[in-house]
Amino acid sequence: MNFTKKNIEDAVNEKILSFEQSKKLIEFLKKQPNTSPKFDFTHVLYYIGGMIAIGAMTLFMNLGWESFGGIGIVFISLFYGSVGLKLTNIFKSKGLAIPAGICGTFVIALTPLAVYGLQQALGVWPDDSVYREYYQYIKWHWLYMELSTLAVGIIIAWKYKYPFLIMPIAVTLWYLTMDSTVMINGGDYNWELRKLVSIYSGLLMIALAFWIDIRSYKKADYAFWIYLFGVISFWVGISLQHSDSELSKFIYFMINLLMIFTGVLIVRRVFVIFGALGCSGYIGYLASDLFKDSWLFPITLTLIGLFFIYLGVLWQKNELVITSKARSFLPQALRELLESKHA
């Protein structure tokens, strides 16, 4: 829970703290290192600068770099990487966790470029594709770049332990599932298979994120990025499924409702956002197709909406009793995680 000056002043008014204690507490909090991400101008500048630097060596890489040849690309990548690691260590020594994590992420993002250059230098690059296509197309031979990125990412994340370092690892896991599908399928870009792989790989990433969440919630939010790309992969996979069965469409709606409930339970907004999108899509389908000419449909939706509001009122009145009883049946580690989220 984040405390504001107003919260402390309210505590003084309620005689929980004395005025002198509140002043000392405010001074103490001001002296603490600013290590967690916040939406302020300083952190916005950090992330803008970091994403520009990372984007320059990834998404926005142009064909001009091909003129350096494989060896040239390898040496330039190593030079940039050494600078990135040096800056990471400098910022770490100064207690600046956010820029340190961004610089470490920059090093991880350089890995596929270095591996691409090495493959070009060794003459083992299999076709005429170029590095910039790594972020645009699905190809089996990106696997070497992805596996190398995962290895470097895990090493750097283990050494520095900044949550933002997990971002390129999560992205690479997502890429890896898509490219490995093409390889397993013998180079065939089977759309149905890719949708199924998206669903199951998303579920695996969500399970991995949940495991990380339970193990590390007392330290930092290392699970955020894996949750994000896991939910995206799963939700896109189920949303692209096609069926003429009304039952299948209703099951899709219920899955999205379950995502919303899960997001509220473990305090992960990404589940709620995508679950709400899915529910909205289903309701939009009902309005535009199944009940297109029914005057009862808007009235029914209104009643359903009011019913949910009523459920919210009941939940607010009985939340402590319900959650206390429900959590008593959960494993200790999961109970502690949920209690920390709602502290």
Offer a quick outline of the entry.
This protein is an all-alpha fold. Helices cover 74% and strands 0% of the residues.
State the secondary-structure class.
mainly alpha
Intertermini distance: 6 Å
SSE topology string: HHHHHHHHHHHHH
How helical, in percent, are the residues? over 70%
Strand element count: 0
Subunit arrangement of the protein: single chain
What is the overall silhouette? flat
Uncertain stretches of 5 or more adjacent residues: none
Average of pLDDT: 82
As a whole number of angstroms, the C-alpha radius of gyration is 25 Å
Largest sheet: none
Total of DSSP H or I helical runs spanning 4+ residues: 13
Percent range for β-strand residues: under 5%
Q: How would you characterize this protein structure?
A:
The chain is mainly alpha-helical and 343 residues long. Helices cover 74% and strands 0% of the residues. The N and C termini lie close together (6 Å). The longest helix is centred in the C-terminal third of the chain and has 32 residues, at 296-327. The protein has helices at residues 5-13, 19-31, 41-56, 69-93, 97-122, 143-160, 166-184, 191-216, 224-239, 246-266, 269-290, 296-327, 332-341. The chain contains 13 helices and no strands. The model has no long low-confidence stretch (mean pLDDT 82). The protein is flat and about 65 Å long.
